[in-house]
Amino acid sequence: MRVQAVLVCLSLSPLAAFYLHAGEQEQKCLIEDVPGDTWVAGTFKIQQWEPGSHGFREPAPGLGMWVTVTTYGDERIHLDIRVGEHDLDAAKAQAKDKVNEVTFKLEHLTEQIEQILKEQNYQRDREEIFRMTSEDTNSNVLWWAFAQTLIFISVGIFQMKYLKDFFMAKKLV
Q1: Going by DSSP bridges, is the β-strand pair 15-22/75-83 parallel, antiparallel, or unpaired?
Q2: Domain for residue 50, yes or no?
Q3: Is residue 60 domain-resident?
Q4: Is residue 26 part of a domain?
Q5: Which tens digit of pLDDT belongs to each residue from 72-128?
Q6: Between residues 146 and 90, which one has the greater pLDDT?
Q7: pLDDT at position 116, please?
Q8: For residue 146, what is the enclosing H or E element?
Q9: Helix, strand, or coil here: 4?
Q10: Rounded CA separation 77/96 (Å)
Q11: What is the bridge-based pairing of β-strands 75-83 and 55-56?
Q12: Are 121 and 37 within 8 A, CB to CB?
């Protein structure tokens, strides 16, 4: 039961960690869809490919977040992106001894609830925009179908009248 609870808690964590490979002069754009006024923090680690050992070296010191790869080898870039309120640091709270454990957990849960509410409102707004766009598109398709039907009927009537006049002029009718 405890293992399941831990797994559920870990699966609900708003944390995304991954790595990507980048070659020389290659640009990568990472897009994270987050609501406005949401705090986004990230850490990164860059490892350079070492052909002799067929592995990646540990990161070099002094690299910034704007990374330009200038070597001919491959680079592995590890990213750890956190979205939401993360200003409560457990180590600082325990070191200062200002907040007891229950209060800390309560504040953390309150922040998580606020973040979930923000995300729900953001998704609601996006769904509303999508619904309006879908309704507009549906309306445009309906009017276009109606206009096409009128055009086809008009062309049919014109062709029937023209052929009737043609056959009368040739005295075939």
Answers
A1: antiparallel
A2: yes
A3: yes
A4: yes
A5: 566 666 666 665 655 555 566 555 555 677 888 898 999 999 999 999 999 999 999
A6: 146
A7: 94
A8: helix 101-169
A9: helix
A10: 35
A11: unpaired
A12: no
Reported as a single tens digit per residue, the pLDDT across 28-39 is 666 666 666 666
Strand partners, 79: 18, 44
Cα separation of 45 and 59, whole Å? 6
Q: How many domains does the chain have?
A: 1
Q: Which domain holds residue 51?
A: 13-82
* Secondary structure (DSSP) of 28-77: --------TT--EEEEEEEEEEETTTTEEPPPPTT--SS----SSS-EEE
pLDDT at position 20, please?
Answer: 60
Residue 22 has pLDDT above 80, yes or no: no
**The two structure tokens encoding residue 28:** 């990568």
Token reading at 172: 């075939």
Look up tokens 């766009």; give the residue.
133
In the chain, the percentage of residues whose pLDDT exceeds 90 is 36
Residue 162 is assigned to a structural domain of this protein = no
